[in-house]
Amino acid sequence: MRTARLLTIGLLLLALSPAPNAQMTSVGRISGTVRDSSGAVIPGATITVINVATNLKRTTTTDEDGFYTVTNLPIGTYLVTAEQRGFKRTAQSDNVLTADARLTVDLTLEPGDLSETVEVSAATGETVNVASGEVARVIDSQQVQNLALNGRNYIQLLSLIPGVALITDDQLELSTSLATNQQSINGNRGQMNNLTVDGGFNLQSGSNASQINNVGIDFIQEVKIQTANFSAEYGRNAGAQINVVTKSGTNEFHGSAFEFLRNDKLDARNFFAPIRPPLRYNDFGYSLGGPIVKNRFFFFGGQEWKKIRRLSNPVVRTVPTLAELNGDFSYRLRGPDGIVGTADDGFLRDPSKSGSCGLVNGQPVRTACFPGNIIPASRITADGRAIASVYRTMIGLATSYIDAPVGNNITFQQPNPLDFREDILRLDYRFNERHSIYGRYIHDNNDLIDPFGTFINSQLPTIPSHRLRPGTSLQVSHTWIIRPTLINEGKATGAWVSQRIPPASEYWKRETYGFTFQQLFTGGGPYENSIPDTSITGFASFNGAARSLVSPTTDITFSDTLTWVHGNHTVKTGLVIIRNRIDQNGRTTYAGQVSFSTS
Predict the structure, then answer these.
(1) Beta bridge partners of 257
(2) Taking the model in full, what pTM does it have?
(3) How many CA atoms lie within 13 A of 189 on its CB side?
């Protein structure tokens, strides 16, 4: 009757559970069958599973089929022992359990006395999953730290698995933009992948294209990547499930101090760049973990800084000549022979005159043209001079400039520096054999200067912006072993990222260039004195600051999972509640939009 009641409760919980959630699990299970030397199963054998790093012990017994399961085990290396009267004690070591792994450890007992022990070392190498059909790959701590990652970003590890196509070859961009959409897994868009840290959501949900916390390589225990056939508890996004498991303390003190660097002296020049751009990349920090109370209370913490000083990728644009910025467009009338006045186009109409200016029946008529295609200084308005001043100022920022009326006559390689800092702290506490808890805190401070305006994408660097993204994640998890075959895990995760992108210079302001036209809207936003978004046919356009983004995001998740082991079957059910909110400004062009077109 008791079993029937439990089964009924489990089925009711399963029926009430929401459809696929996004709570990646950071624990695994070990199961197997105990047999004697003749191959017969041994029921009632005592199984003890011990985490060799923290001395966590879990005990169960085999059922009538000699089968056992120990679930909700933290990742780590385990010793598995089996005991039964009339048999020697058997111990199998080096059983490496990864996140959401279903590790099979079968044991064989030999006849003898319990005081005798048979020790077996598990085979090294990657364990074949025979308990589920998921397509997954685990990248462990040693691989994470030893693989050559020129950007020191764990997202680069995705390229190790089959079915991944890189969308960009600029791996530093993954660090400066925190991008998550630069890899396509099994043909899915990058925004379709679900990224989590210790099972907690780790995406800026406005786009799903950047991270909340870019967890440092030295703080990662492993990365679990599931690309297909994962269980129903995963969801939220349609693509791959990528879970980062942070390190925790053990019974021994372990730490690290590190610095990695890159320098332009070791780089080749971009084909389109007139110079080899400078690069100074310093990634440094430390980590420390160990016991506060042996076998019971553990800590792990660290800090990491990334400082990147580099130029953006070169871009070429078309801008007026210096003479044209002063009103002299006579060069536009030069014909193939180089003589002024023999060209078939390029005439400037004087709006104060009547008549024709241009070609009439194939012949040039200039009754309404500016003489010599030169606009007198007295005819140029204050706002006309301001527009010319924008181009003149941008020419002063260029890497190279050709003062001739030709296309692509200017090249920009603007400063694109990054200052990044991450703080991490994790505490694990075991009250007793039935109750354990852990808390984890991560905070990132990310300050990137985007020379062409983040999400503004000005063709000229009139709006370099600070892309400020402080990201914070808090997580608390409690595991309750009600009995060896019934385990409950409750978890709460809060993640906040406040993406604010203010201007990083004075180039966006009207007063910088002397614009005087009446603003259409006043009091309409924090950058109402911005220059207008301006486009001129044949020349590079430029934008102001009116569309600067403010986008704070909050993601709070509560989940509870109940796991019941009954014989050869494991029933897992639970619920998840997610509150996700993003506030974003409308970013209208209230500072004006100006267009000059030949049509």
Answers:
(1) 286
(2) 0.83
(3) 7
